[in-house]
Each structure stands twice: as structure tokens, then as C-alpha cells.
Here is the input.
Amino acid sequence: MRESIFIKAPAKINLSLDIIGRRPDGFHLVEMVMQTISLCDHITLEAADGAIHLHCSHPFVPAGSGNIVWKAAHLLKSTYGSAEMGAVITVEKHIPVSAGLGGGSSDAAAVLKGLNELWDLRLSPAQLAELGLRLGADVPFCLQGGTALARGIGEELTPVAPPPSLWVVLLKPNMGVSTGEVYREFVQGRVRTRPDTQRLVSALEAGDYQAMAESMANVLESVTFRRFPILRRLKQKALELGALAAMMSGSGPTIFALTPEYKRAAAIYNRLRHQVEFAHITTFWEE
Here is the structure.
């Protein structure tokens, strides 16, 4: 077995997010195109005897059993490991928390992949995905990464062609959003704009970023924008500053803007960074 592993956990954005129904157990059925980006948390895994120890650089992220990373390691060990297996997990956070960028899910996915290698468990991607779904609906996508059409509660994944090369400007005000609360408050009748998901997938396959931009939408904006009007203003301002597209990621509150030109991305960043807690320029993820 290896003694230590370093792994990157990339953030995600939603190029589209639609809610198309609800299961009998209350979970919403979604149809969305998800995309990993190059903003990453950094995770170091070191072999240890017996116990799982977690250290995190972010002061507001729990370091024990309340952390999805600890839960991922414990689930993997209890399901496929043995009592003597352990690890010291160090998470260096760069992805803002409670931001709609999938930081926790991506960290959990990275730990599943990394410990599978560190502990020499030799589990298949399908086995890891099954564990991931028990941790959260976004974890299977974070295990796969890239660009994918997600259906069901987010676990039915179909890889699609990656987007054309674009700059991504992230803008997160000083607030956190509970994904569960946003979904509970969602009402279909309040949605004004829905994504054209099939046109979006076709646009990605054709490399047509104009058609891609015209097909994007996130129905959860109907909830989060009502609670936090600053998000609607940030989105509108990014479009006024020349963004090809601007949208909320996930349940929010992060707004992202897309542009093929770095100068345009820099202009959006410089004009709006003082209005938010976190601003960052990045790109789509390339391994």
C-alpha cells in the first residue's frame, strides 16, 4: 500500500438545472448539465493505523463525524475495509462552502477515490458511485467529473461533449444557502425561464457557445433570487458587462459568468469583486 496520496477535488457548476418531477419519497427529479471547473480543494491522504483523522483549513468546516469527508472515509472503511485501516486526511479548502459549487461532494468523491488507492481496495467506479450516492446526490458526478447530463436525483449520468474553451468568473456574496431549504421552497408555477437541455447538449456537441448560452437556465433561481435580490443584480450586471452567459450554480448563492475572452472576464471580475465575499477567475476542468 502507498504511504500518502495528494488529490485535487474540483468544484462544479450547473450549465442547466431543471426540476421535472418528484419521487414518492419526496426527492425532486432533476435534469441538468453539470461541469467541473479548475477551482480545486487540495486533499492529502496519509496511511495510519486503525483510526480516521480529519484536518481542515476552513474554520467553519467540522473536523469530525459531521463532515462529509469523514463520512466518506468511514463508509468506505466499514463497507470494504478492515479494522486496521486508517488515514490522516488533510483538506486545504479553496472552494467556498455552502456556495452551490459542490465543494463538500467533490471532497468526499476525492477521498473515496484516494482511499481506494491508498488502501489498495481495487473497487470499480460503479462500486465507488454506489457509495457516493449514499453520501449525496452530487457525489457520483464528482467521482466522474468532466461534463455530464444528470437525471434522476442526479445519479443517472450520461457523459456529454465538453464546452468550448471559456473563462469562468465566480461571484459569491457573503451568505450561505441551504440546498434542502431551496428545494423545499421550490414551486413550479413560479418558474419564468426553463433550460432547453436537449438543445444545450446538442450545442456542446457542436461546439456552438452562442446556442449553449441561449439554452442555459436554472429553475432554482426562482427561489434563491427571491430570498437574496443581490444575486439577480449580480447576474444582470455580469450580462451588462458583456458576459456570454451568467447564471446561478446549483441552489446558490454563487453566480458564474462565462466569456471566451480573458479581458472580458477580468473586466467582470474587477467591476464586481468588491460587491462579493469571494470572486475568482477560472476555466473548465481539464485533467
In short: The CA atoms of residues 115 and 272 lie 39 Å apart. The domain at 4-159 is CATH 3.30.230.10 (Ribosomal Protein S5; domain 2). The longest helix spans residues 103-118.
